[in-house]
Write a structure and sequence with these properties.
Layout (H helix, E strand, L loop, with lengths): L1 E7 L2 E7 L1 H27 L8 E5 L5 H10 L3 E4 L2 H11 L4 E4 L8 H7 L2 E5 L2 H10 L7 E7 L15 H10 L3 E8 L7 H20 L6 E3 L6 H6 L4 E4 L1 H4 L5
Parallel strand pairs: 3-4, 3-10, 4-5, 5-6, 6-7, 7-8, 8-9
Antiparallel strand pairs: 1-2
Helix pairs in contact: 1-2, 4-5
């Protein structure tokens, strides 16, 4: 029986890992090393410092032992799409990981998102931003938020059209209890590499425009397992990685 240290709700405890679970830690550690190797190669090709790219481990529908193994391997950021699932996980792992909400925020669930998460990647309206600002507890640090840019060709899939991003970003930046950090870009599935490159480049240019307008922004969340090289080359600072780190999701 092996052991590892894991901080849970502010205290460090020791957890037993059975032989099979030790293998999970080893596998995820190796997967993380491969991902970091891919990031380093892509960053160097673009003349970037790999340290400027952060891995957000998307842990939706992943079993507890894989999430614990990822934390042991060095993952600091966990992303969740589904609120009810996340609310079951957060008390287990506490606030040691940084919790990111990466799904659509339903209006009747915005209070729970505002109270339990550190980041929200999917702000796409002034109304949502206003709700999150009102509902963020005053005793907590400001909620870190990203404006979600609508994918090219289908704005119904979430996000705000690029032309409307500056106005929304300015509104978010003016609100108390929120800190605007940047943009989230999520292209539609099935894009070619060149189409992805163009859309990622457009996201980077939009972020640069907001900075030129005087907003202090540092985050461009874009790219997943299959397209991380292109995203890094086009300026991503945060990659949303799921199955290439954890393995297949549970159904």
């Amino acid at each position: 029986m092996a052991h590892f240290a894991l901080t849970i709700t502010g205290r460090t405890t020791r957890h037993s890992i059975a032989t099979g679970q030790t293998a999970v830690v080893t596998r995820i550690t190796e997967q993380l090393a491969r991902l970091r190797g891919r990031i380093e190669t892509a960053a160097q090709a673009a003349g970037r410092d790999p340290a400027g790219v952060r891995i957000l481990a998307v842990s939706k529908r992943q079993p507890a032992e894989r999430i614990a193994a990822a934390i042991v391997a060095g993952i600091k950021d966990l992303g969740e799409n589904y609120l009810q699932e996340a609310l079951q996980k957060i008390p287990v792992y506490g606030k040691e990981p940084v919790w990111h909400f990466v799904g659509r925020v339903q209006s009747n669930k915005s209070r729970s998102v505002a109270e339990h998460f550190d980041w929200v990647h999917t702000v796409d309206s002034e109304r949502l931003a206003d709700r999150l600002s009102r509902q963020r507890p005053a005793e907590q640090a400001p909620l870190q938020v990203l404006v979600q840019v609508a994918p090219w060709g289908d704005a119904s899939r979430g996000g705000v059209p690029a032309a409307a991003v500056p106005a929304l970003a300015a509104h978010v930046a003016s609100l108390p209890r929120l800190q605007l950090r940047g943009l989230m870009v999520m292209p539609l599935a099935g894009r070619s590499t060149e189409e992805l490159r163009e859309e990622f480049a457009a996201g980077r240019e939009l972020l640069d425009q907001l900075r030129a307008d005087g907003l202090n922004l540092d985050t461009l969340s874009m790219g997943m397992s299959h397209d991380l090289e292109t995203a890094v080359q086009e300026g991503a600072t945060m990659l949303r990685i799921g199955t290439d780190l954890f393995g297949p999701r549970e159904t």
